[in-house]
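Changelog-adjacent note: as of this version, every example in the card shows the full chain rather than a window. The one below runs 262 residues end to end.
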Amino acid sequence: MAKAYERIAGDLRESIRAGRLGPGDRLPPETKLAERYRRSVPTVRDALRLLQAEGLIEKQHGRGNFVRRPRTPVRRANQRHQWEKDRARQPLEQRAKTGSTEHDTGLELDDLVFNAVYRDIPAGPEIARAFDVPEGTTLLERTFRTRYRAESAPFSMVTSYLVRAMVAANPELLDERNEPWPGGTQNQLYTVGIELDRVEERITARPPTPDEAEELGLPPGTAVIELRKTMYDTDDRAVEISDVLLPGDRTEMHFTTHLERW
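Full-length structure tokens:
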């Protein structure tokens, strides 16, 4: 038999799904809900916490509980890498029209707010092994955040690594002020004579840290998807490594694998 707080949560959940409570609507105060359901305020709070964990409502301190507005979904398909390679050699005018975030979300370039920070760092043991370079080799670390202008949280948290000496032939690649770069990383590598052969991605899921949950705007109990992406060139060198953190409540990973016929 359902507990009292589960029955309250079920009734409010049904009101949200039926549209009687819409995105952005404020729920009645806890005391009013307690009167309506003839239960204690602590029981009502248990019900609200359950709905928060499901991502249906959010608590705004000092204001109350509100129906959570659906966030723009992101659909990452494995075909995106070929799409990026196809456009890497296109003229600037074509590359500047759209990017990978627009491709994954259906949004327009003007809908987005983009931030990039570059810095030089020494390669630690793990990254050095992945790049097959000596530990301490200078890397260009790039952190990227892109969000929908109407939302406060980014679509992902991205940290990208390049071997600095590998891309230094084009000084423009070392300047964060040139971001967002039309054509993305594949075009950046193309400007220094690098063609990609393959992209490998390793995907895991885990609970977020408190800082990650805050930055990504995650409801309680939401997992993050952790993606390590390694790009290899036609000489089988690792030329770019990215750590991508994706919010589990808005990200769909879609993979299509074409099989050889018998």
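Structural remarks: The beta strands are 57-60, 64-67, 74-77, 112-122, 138-148, 157-163, 196-206, 224-233, 238-247, 251-254.
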